[in-house]
Structures are given as C-alpha cells and as structure tokens.
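Sample 3 of the quickstart, ligand tetrahydrodeoxyuridine:
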Amino acid sequence: MSGREKQELIQKALEARQMAYAPYSHYLVGAALLTEDGSVYQGGNIENASYGATNCAERTAVFKAVSDGKRRIKAIAVTGGMEGADPADYAFPCGICRQVLREFGTGDMTLIVAKNVTDYREFGLEELLPFGFGGESIK
Ligand code: THU
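Result:
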C-alpha cells in the first residue's frame, strides 16, 4: 500500500466517523477498510440505549463488506475521539473487533490507527492479536 492509499483510507475513516451514532458515550469512531478487490467500506460505531447492543465502527465496516460478499480485508484504518473535537489519540480496536478482523483479514492485513492523515501508526494482525484463535483450529 502506498502512502497515498493509506492517507485516502484514513480520510474515509474520518468521514465515516461523522456518521457514528454515539449519543451515550459521545466517543465517535470511524473505520474504513480496503478489500482484496479494491473496494472500500466505511463504518461508524452505533450505540444503543441498552449499551450492550452497541456495535463498534470496525465491525460495522466489516459486516457491511462481508454482507456484500467481500471476505478478504487487506487494510483497515480506524479513527476515534470525543465528539466535537478531532481525534486526540490513536483508537485501537477492542478485543471483539480484533477477533472479527482475525476472521476476515488477509494474513498480511494492515491496521492503521490514525489521529489524522499524517499522524498514524501501522500494525499487523499478529501484533494485534497474538496467538489468536481461528477457523484453521476447527477441523
Ligand atoms: N468503540 C468502537 O467503535 N470501536 C472500538 O474498537 C472500541 C470502542 C465504540 C463503542 C462505543 O460506542 C464507544 O466506542 C465507547 O466505547
């Protein structure tokens, strides 16, 4: 992935963050992922009054892609921060989202956590979820 492609994905994640529905935590997260065929899917966190029914931004984007038949994720950019301000910190995926990314990420999937298009960090799936459990174990 070129630097420019990474910046475009971060920009899409920041755009998705504007669609987040987070009236309870006021913590807005946006994710944008790139599938193997070059498609981009965006997602924001979607909260719920029951709290437990909340869906994270990463999983919103992954489920949109998978429900469209795109099961191979090459890269995902995540941005998050409090409402009314630009992201002040890197927003790392929660444990459940890491497990979902383990399911649909390619072996060399890149996770980009970004404050903005120029301030970001990159990680691999193995760094994100070492010794992870996957479908290959169920035979
Ligand atoms: N959240 C995400 O969207 N992604 C994560 O990986 C961590 C948490 C959301 C869920 C909830 O709406 C808000 O952030 C505060 O936990």
